[in-house]
Amino acid sequence: MSRTGDLPAEDRLAWWRERMAQALCPMDMRVDHLDRFEAEISVVEVGEVRVWPGMAAPMSFHRTPALIRQFDPGTYHVTCMLDGVMEIAQAGRREVHRGGGLFVTDPSRPFDCRNHVTTRIIGVEVPRRLLPLPGGRVEQLLTEGLSWREGVGALLLGLLTRLVRDAATYRPAGLLRLETVVLDLLAAALAERLDAHDRLPPETRSHALALRVQSFIRGHLHDPALTPRSVADAHHISLGHLHRILRALGHDTPAASIRSQRLERARQDLADPAQRAVPVQEIGARWGFTDAAVFSRTFRAVHGVPPRDYRRHTLPTPPPSRDGHRIS
User: Are the C-beta atoms of residues 124 and 179 closer than 8 Å to each other?
Assistant: First the structure.
């Protein structure tokens, strides 16, 4: 992460102007209080997509016609608002955005932007030629807010957050594969707002649907009513289509996928020393196994021992208490 840090106050704006030109595009900038100005940024190259978490104190950004003539990055810029307040004006529209939303701007057009308070974002630079939507349709959404608290927007933000958090652990080949995922989720989020799913390529629609199905299953593992039928119904698809989606992801059947994920969550809890005192049957019920005998039998079929024995063999022996008795 690069930050203003200990730079002299008079050097901070020039430093930030250079970093933003590299991450997004050249812009004119003004800060409210140069002596108190702070900013930070790090950049992750995901194939041809650039992802960068950033923070800046109150200031304004201006993309002018003269700067556009000097350099056109050929990208769309996506701002995911984590916190703060940002006002953006472009293409005759002006919007104010706060944490919980995202919006798109076009660096090939003039814009004016202002942080009213210290603001944290995740910025994404997407080459226009890679986004599988007609440019005219995307331009309908310039500056308009889209929520990332639900639906495909939530999936996109979750992916971007993990990506910037774990960037150092990814190999170049892994980042290149993630480029497709980022593009598909962004395209699906925009198409959802435009009611233009039919304009997406079939592979993009299929990939986005698969990601939504996976997220839905993970978010409902605790619910005993989660079944292949409920998953299919929630996504308005047939059971056969659900089978094909999960098979393409390497799963045997929807039921097997749900069962294996529930068992893995239960296994993690059983191996957690902080949950030593939680009854085994309570852990099973937490992950959708309402029948303790079924939980024990299913767990043993996969791990070779009942959950109680797995916990006893996995957890370290508890330390003795002050009176000499071991803590159970």
Answer: no
pTM strictly above 0.85: no
Q: Is 263 exposed, middle or buried (0-12, 13-18, 19+ CB in 10 A)?
A: buried
182-204 confidence digits (pLDDT tens): 888 888 888 877 765 666 667 77
* 248: in domain: no
Asked whether the beta carbons of 53 and 94 are under 8 A apart, the reply is no
266 within 8 A of 286, measured Cβ to Cβ: yes
Q: Contact, 176 vs 47, CB < 8 A?
A: yes
Give residue 319's pLDDT. Answer: 60
47 pLDDT above the threshold of 50: yes
Q: What angle do CA 21, 100, 182 make, to 5 degrees?
A: 60
Same domain (yes/no): 190, 280: no
Backbone angles phi, psi at 191, to 5 degrees: -65, -35
Counting the structural domains of the chain, the total is: 2
Judgement on whether residues 102 and 206 belong to the same structural domain of the protein: yes
178 or 122, which is more confident? 122
How far apart are alpha carbons 150 and 230 in whole angstroms?
A: 19
For residue 260, being part of any structural domain is answered with no
pLDDT value of residue 327: 45
CA distance linking residue 43 with residue 7, whole number of Å: 20
CA distance 55 to 83: 10
State which residues form the domain around 296. 267-314
Please give the mean pLDDT across all residues of the chain.
Answer: 88
